[in-house]
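User: Let's play a game. I give you a shape written as tokens, and you guess the letters that built it. Ready? Here's round one.
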């Protein structure tokens, strides 16, 4: 397809945000770009259309809403016209749940699923018909890229009846299986606005201690997956003197980019996608997005590839690092549910735990502070207070600031003893008593 042809298609499909959302009928099942990929102009126009009653009965499926969605389409006053359907809760959903509870309404609709299965859920189960997302500018061949958010956006773009994109020059152009062709696009809106940024969390003394312990499990040549928050920053800081590291991660974060810049990560010892860092989505400061832009050493791929345990396991020496909310004395982890409510979701935790477990010489690490509620509650608990995110059969290494417990091959009694040993000292005696009541000792 010649350049003149793709430019003609581009011009024909270019529209205002108001014109673009007018293509969305009532009853549409929508997939919304994750976090950084939320298209602000399109969402503002869609909210305005719903506000005046021009469209309704919309179901919007997504993982991890950002402030843009919270301030537009997810306003509580639009709840009878636009239904958020979350596959991963964050601060927006937690705030909405609080508002809804005060009015006697049920919480935000939630679909439990692993992140790696999100494209399947959206395309095959829910059968979304519309995609709204932000993309990088079109190249000479007529391709946009999904930039920071290849995840489920790229697979949904291949099947959705309507693909409505916001073209933002600040969205990085990335390599990998990240492209969407102009012929697949129904309408496009140009909007040059700064991308949302995720600042690194402050590294507390517990994070630093955990980071040092986790870094001790990581060797030159290992292939890394990191989660979100202050802990990955602490771990990455402790790895700056390592060499030949690889990256195959659900989330690209600033700490991993820093390791690439320093030369600690070169991906030379991977068995799959050799020489490149692979990710599904990215969140961080502006410098991260600039680092990713047209960087041949970074590739974005759909999350059903990145998070597929059989794909993860094709690399040797995978080290998966994730966080949890509580660990019971049997070794099971609840990483998503607290105080009787959905707090986050399983995300890709179990995907990578299992991928690392099947990787040759792989290590799966799940970390948490030993206490919560300003020291008033233990995160090592007799039994979980919510659903099991990572089953005890899959858990390998648990880390707190007080040490680590390698649960592989241990009996339930040995597990309980090892976990009590890394609990906060103030809770160890009580946990031992509870373990006896559970007949673990």
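Assistant: Ready! My guess for every position:
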């Amino acid at each position: 397809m010649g350049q003149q042809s793709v430019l003609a298609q581009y011009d024909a499909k270019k529209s205002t945000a108001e014109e673009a959302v007018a293509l969305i009928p009532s009853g549409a099942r929508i997939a919304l770009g994750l976090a950084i990929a939320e298209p602000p102009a399109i969402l503002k126009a869609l909210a305005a259309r719903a506000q005046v009653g021009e469209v309704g009965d919309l179901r919007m499926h997504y993982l991890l809403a950002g402030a843009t969605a919270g301030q537009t389409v997810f306003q509580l006053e639009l709840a009878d016209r636009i239904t958020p359907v979350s596959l991963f809760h964050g601060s927006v959903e937690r705030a909405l749940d609080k508002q809804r509870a005060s009015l006697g309404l049920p919480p935000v609709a939630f679909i439990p699923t692993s992140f790696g299965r999100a494209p399947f859920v959206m395309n095959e189960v829910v059968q979304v018909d519309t995609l709204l997302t932000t993309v990088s500018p079109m190249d000479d061949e007529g391709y946009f890229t999904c930039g920071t958010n290849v995840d489920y956006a790229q697979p949904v773009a291949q099947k959705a009846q309507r693909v409505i994109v916001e073209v933002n020059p600040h969205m990085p152009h990335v390599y990998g299986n990240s492209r969407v062709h102009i012929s697949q696009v129904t309408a496009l809106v140009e909007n040059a606005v700064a991308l949302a940024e995720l600042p690194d969390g402050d590294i507390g003394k517990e994070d630093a201690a955990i980071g040092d312990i986790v870094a001790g499990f990581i060797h030159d040549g290992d292939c890394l997956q990191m989660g979100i928050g202050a802990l990955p920053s602490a771990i990455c800081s402790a790895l700056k003197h390592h060499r030949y590291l690889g990256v195959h991660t659900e989330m690209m974060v600033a700490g991993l980019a820093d390791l690439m810049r320093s030369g600690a990560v070169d991906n030379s010892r991977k068995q799959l996608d050799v020489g490149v860092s692979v990710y599904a989505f990215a969140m961080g400061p502006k410098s991260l997005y600039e680092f990713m832009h047209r960087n041949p050493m970074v590739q974005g791929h759909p999350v059903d590839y990145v998070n597929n345990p059989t794909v993860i396991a094709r690399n040797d020496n995978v080290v998966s690092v994730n966080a949890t909310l509580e660990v019971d004395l049997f070794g099971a982890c609840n990483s998503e549910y607290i105080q009787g409510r959905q707090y986050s979701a399983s995300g890709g935790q179990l995907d990578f735990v299992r991928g690392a477990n099947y990787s040759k010489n792989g290590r799966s690490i799940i970390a948490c502070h030993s206490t919560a509620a300003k020291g008033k509650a233990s995160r090592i608990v007799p039994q979980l207070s919510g659903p099991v995110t990572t089953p005890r059969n899959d858990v390998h290494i648990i880390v707190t600031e007080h040490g680590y417990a390698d649960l592989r091959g241990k009996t339930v009694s040995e597990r309980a003893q090892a976990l009590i040993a890394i609990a906060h000292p103030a809770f160890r005696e009580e946990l031992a008593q509870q373990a006896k009541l559970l007949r673990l000792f």
